[in-house]
Design goal:
This protein is of the alpha/beta class and 255 residues long. The protein has two domains: 11-221, Rossmann fold; 224-255. Helices cover 39% and strands 15% of the residues. Helix 8 packs antiparallel against helix 9. Residues 66-195 form the DJ-1/PfpI domain.
Length: 255
């Protein structure tokens, strides 16, 4: 007899902000907000669709603590609702914890890593690791012995830093409670897949249809070789264009 995962009738979700955070990475949290009665009702949907909604509690977590703002890309900031020590976000209190990508060169402070390790040890929370969020997750040991994906352009760097992980080239991947995504908007693909795993199918279908996400395959349309060739071609074009602009400037100066 096959067993199925019971669908959640409510969700407690945290998003760990390690500034500076990629704004598009963090946008995946909005799909959780769209599951709520308040959101669906505000959209003016028919009653049968509104009744699919579930309560969702979202916590914006950062070491700086509540009342502060976490810096994002594009000069944006996001209010922090909970410090790392908040009782509401301790191990066992969250159904899911999103880790959007920070600066890939940043090594998080030990209190942030300890927070992640504690959640891993409790084994009660699903981790949704988006783009360069794989770096803090890796430093905390979350990736060890797990099948993981990451941004295609830096998979080599991730493999070097975290050799205990088993890296694959996909838009998103799941290994137990560890869900990981490729670059930036692949976090939306990941979250769409997670919603279909976690909540009632009709509700997940509704939210993903409204957001127009979740229609891309788990595997990329192009292979590693063609993707690498595309980046090389883009760099070559940029180099040629740069030289062309330089030549134009020299001619104008001579005139």
């Amino acid at each position: 007899m096959t067993s199925t995962t019971p669908k959640a009738i409510s969700l407690r979700v945290g998003i760990l902000l390690i500034p500076p955070v990629q704004l598009l990475d963090a946008s995946a949290i909005d799909l959780f907000g769209m599951l709520t009665h308040e959101y669906l009702e505000a959209c003016g949907l028919p009653k049968p669709l509104i009744e699919l909604a579930i309560p969702v509690e979202i916590h914006y977590i950062a070491a700086s603590g509540s009342g502060t703002h976490a810096s994002m890309t594009s000069s944006a900031t996001l209010p922090v609702t909970d410090p790392l020590s908040s009782p509401a976000v301790q191990p066992g209190q969250l159904d899911a914890l999103l880790i959007p990508g920070p600066d890939p060169n940043l090594v998080p402070d030990e209190d942030v890593l300890a927070f992640l390790r504690a959640h891993k040890k409790a084994d009660k929370t699903d981790f949704l690791i988006i783009c360069t969020g794989s770096f803090p997750a890796g430093y905390a040991g979350l990736l060890d012995e797990k099948r993981i994906t990451g941004p295609r352009g830096i998979l080599g760097k991730l493999k070097d830093k975290f050799p205990a992980a088993k890296f694959v080239d996909r838009r998103w991947e799941r290994d137990g409670k560890i869900w990981s995504s490729g670059g930036i908007t692949n976090g939306l693909d990941l979250t769409a897949a997670y919603l279909h795993y976690k909540v009632q199918k009709e509700l997940a279908d509704l939210v993903c249809a409204m957001a127009e996400v979740g229609d891309r395959d788990q595997d990329y349309d192009s292979g590693k070789v063609s993707n690498t060739l595309w980046w090389m071609w883009l760099m070559l074009r940029s180099l040629v264009k740069g030289k062309s602009k330089g030549g134009s400037k020299e001619r104008k100066m001579e005139e």
